[in-house]
Amino acid sequence: MTTEPGDRAWVLHHYPYGDTSLIVELFTRTQGRLGVLAKGARRARSALARIEAGRPLWVRWLGRGELPVLAQAEELGPFLPLNPLQNLSLFYVNELLLRLTQRRDPFPDLFQVYEETIGALRSEPGEGWYLRRFERRLLENLGWAPDLARCVECGRSPDAASSERWLYQAARGVFCPAHASDAAVPIEAAALAWLRGAMQTRNTPVWNSSLRRCLEQELLIHLGGRPLESRRLLTAYLRRTQPAMTIQKREEHSE
Predict the structure, then answer these.
(1) Which residues pair with 173 in a beta bridge?
(2) Looking at the domain 127-224, which fold is it?
(3) Which class is 1-118 in CATH?
(4) Which segments of the chain are extended strands (E)?
(5) Could you tell me which residues are beta bridge partners of residue 214?
(6) Which of 70, 51, 52 is nearest to 60 (CA)?
(7) What is the pTM of this model?
(8) Band of the pLDDT at 1, cuts 50, 70, 90?
(9) According to the lineage, what is the superkingdom (predicted)?
(10) What DSSP state is assigned to residue 147?
């Protein structure tokens, strides 16, 4: 049985297998998504007992089949507990990878974006810009991202310095104000410029709603119309907590 030399990985999901083992879905740097069998991982004293989402690992596995055996999993740095919002954001990006990627399809650039996203959700849990960046980069890596640089009808480019509102249609692209399209989402020209750029810094808060709606519609097409459980839970959580968070910020500002 062949032993792989090892790779950096993140746990996306795991579920029981037999009485003592787990099947673990990993996102690895060189192999992409990889399913492995972690034998005995559910035993309390197992070296694999602490496998869970949000832990960076160095892993080695045996075999080249559909479900190789996990031979080693070492933590890369301390595990930092996540709050509810961070956990839901992590669940969301992991569910996207599980639903939209295939096993053994490597995406080294997306792996780096994933690690940056985990870092951002730890340091800026109340912000959503890093989720929008991950969504767009995921679509780009899978070859599904529409062209945002010019109007589908006339070829005109959006001016990031203008206050124009363009229109975004999933699976087609963007339309200038002169070429409105049915079932399109209004979006600011400056927001389009951010979305097709590096996206390394947070976007303007007023763009949040339009960016989220555009990318949600785009992803839903490739999800076969089946919504994500993580998005439902994340939306419900934000609806419950945002009024309280707004009041707290106002009180802090008044002090």
Answers:
(1) 169
(2) de novo design (two linked rop proteins) (1.20.1440)
(3) mainly beta
(4) 7-17, 21-28, 32-38, 56-62, 69-75, 165-169, 173-175, 185-188
(5) none
(6) 70
(7) 0.89
(8) low
(9) Bacteria
(10) P
